[in-house]
Amino acid sequence: MAIDLQGWMFWLPSFICFACSLILGHLYVKHRARSKVLAERLCRSRSALKRVRAQLRSRIERQKLTLRASNDVIFHWNAHSGLLRWSANGGRFFTAPPRPCNAWRLLQRCVDKRDRERVRHELQLFMAGGAAVWENEFTLKGRGKARVPVRVRGILVRDVSGKPLKMVGALSDMTDAHAAKEAARALARAARLATIGEITAGITHEVNQPLGAILNNAETGLFLLQRKRPSIGMLRTILEDIRNDDLRASQVVRRTRALLQTREMIREQVSLNKVLAEAVDLLWMQAKRRGIALTLSQGSIPSISGDSVHLQQVIINLIGNALDATEVDITGSKRVEVLSQYVDSSIRVSVRDTGCGIAPEQLEDIFESFHSGKVEGLGLGLSIARAIVKAHGGHIYAENNLHGPGATVSFELPVPVDASTTPFPSTLLVRQAAD
Ligand SMILES: Nc1ncnc2c1ncn2[C@@H]1O[C@H](COP(=O)(O)OP(=O)(O)OP(=O)(O)O)[C@@H](O)[C@H]1O
Ligand SMILES: [Mg+2]
User: Fold this and answer.
1) What is the per-residue pLDDT across 180-207, written as a single tens digit (0 to 9) for each?
2) Where does the record place the Histidine kinase domain (predicted)?
3) Pair 325, 421 in one domain
């Protein structure tokens, strides 16, 4: 068979050209489709990027607004560089340079010199320890002669070996909180002064009694000395009596002075039964004058950590309220009972009266400041009592008596765990203070 070479020579290149154009065409179509997809994707990611950017911007804006609205200064400390950065409102608190600076140098420059060493020492201890949260209170040097009390709370991030990496935290201005605390203290003192006024009769009686006894004993002593051979034994007894009466009188003066003082809460071991007895001693004369039987029933209770003067203020106010409520009631017997008990790991002190009772809708309201049902009442006694009881970790409440007239106002204070494990039998010691 003869091969038509001329035909091949013609057809082969044409076929190759045709095949190449097919392949190129296919590649072109495919590439266009892919670039279209890519372009679409690019568009989508661009708009996503725009969205994310807008979200980020509005989030930053929100954070800025929050910072402006809040009084707190936010700070960030880098342990590696030692630099401290803070939010723009830092200038309101202290005279700090506008740029980040070394934290220790800033502490030296901005913290009041009375607090400086303490803060430095406590911060160094914290860094060396393993804790994550640092809390402290100190005073910053403000503009001019101003002093700004602040509270700092920072979270420290450490590496696996416990080495500090960075701290993020906030400084809060405590000026208002301090002023409120000061006002509350002044208010409590005013209430104590009012209480003193009410119990003056009792105090006078309490001081008068030992003074009278001292006079009697002194006169008897002088009479004995007129004898040729005065009995040394009798003279000793007389002198011991004089000493005891003098101690009693000065104790009353001490208690009254303590009530008059403006002071911070001082925690010590307190026997609540002793505090109750002293409060009843101060008020029994007033109760007697009003024809009210004031009784004290003391259960066997453990001592607690607290401030005896503040707790006495609470009890005096509860008894004072009970006496006021009972005086209103003219029918039936007038009684106010003070009771201490050990109940469910707590000490409960109740003041129960046979008075007019409390309207059910006011059982909570009477603990609010300036809520008074009396013509001359300040309406502060119970709100101060609630604050004091709360500061001792307890709570106070009022209820109307289920059986019989009147109301009972009680407060409960927690007992330390080690003390509460010891059993306390509830034997009652009853003291009558009406005759
Ligand atoms: N045992 C009670 N029985 C009836 N009402 C009571 C009793 N205890 C308190 N209240 C009511 O609660 C009110 C508030 O008492 P609170 O001790 O706070 O103020 P106050 O006695 O009016 O004034 P002060 O500040 O001088 O103590 C009283 O005015 C009284 O109306
Ligand atoms: Mg009162």
Assistant:
1) 887 777 777 777 777 666 666 556 666 7
2) 202-417
3) yes
